[in-house]
């Protein structure tokens, strides 16, 4: 089998797109109004008539061109572009830009300050109420 034939195997491309969409053959069959065996035959076919290809593309939620031009390398490059943070300002949580323990200590200190302010406020309220009772 030549490399050219392998790369233009429409059935394999449909199979890979279906797998990337996390779809089972049964689900694709249901969307096409057929059975799982028919989908298996489609995925094992090197070529598919244009009309059937349009139906499959619609069921998969992609264009006919996407199926025809699909390659594993392009898909890998596409998904890797989301995790390549060298040239991107977006951080997807893979690398912390702060020390989580420092943030925990900051939160603890802030809680401590708030508690001290609350305690001071309660002391002021108590002394004010005592003063009112003495004045009566």
UniProtKB/TrEMBL annotation:
Protein origin, superkingdom: Bacteria
CDD domains: HTH_XRE
Coiled coil ranges: 104-131
Keywords: Coiled coil
Gene3D superfamilies, per database record: lambda repressor-like DNA-binding domains (1.10.260.40)
PROSITE patterns associated with the record: HTH_CROC1
InterPro entries per the UniProt record, alphabetical: Cro/C1-type_HTH, Lambda_DNA-bd_dom_sf
GO molecular function annotation: DNA binding
HTH cro/C1-type domain sequence ranges: 14-67
One Pfam short name: HTH_3
Protein name: Transcriptional regulator, XRE family
Source organism (scientific name): Flavobacterium johnsoniae (strain ATCC 17061 / DSM 2064 / JCM 8514 / BCRC 14874 / CCUG 350202 / NBRC 14942 / NCIMB 11054 / UW101)
């Amino acid at each position: 089998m030549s490399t050219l034939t392998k790369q233009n195997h429409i059935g394999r491309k449909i199979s890979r797109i279906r797998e990337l969409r996390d779809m089972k053959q049964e689900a694709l069959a249901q969307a096409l109004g057929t059975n799982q065996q028919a989908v298996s035959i489609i995925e094992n076919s090197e070529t598919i008539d244009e009309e059937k290809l349009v139906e499959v593309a619609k069921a998969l939620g992609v264009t006919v061109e996407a199926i025809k031009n699909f390659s594993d390398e392009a898909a890998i490059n596409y998904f890797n572009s989301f995790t390549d943070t060298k040239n991107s300002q977006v951080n997807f949580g893979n690398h912390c830009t702060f020390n989580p323990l420092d943030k925990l200590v900051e939160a603890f200190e802030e809680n401590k300050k708030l508690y001290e302010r609350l305690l001071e406020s309660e002391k002021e309220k108590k002394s004010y109420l005592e003063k009112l009772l003495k004045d009566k």
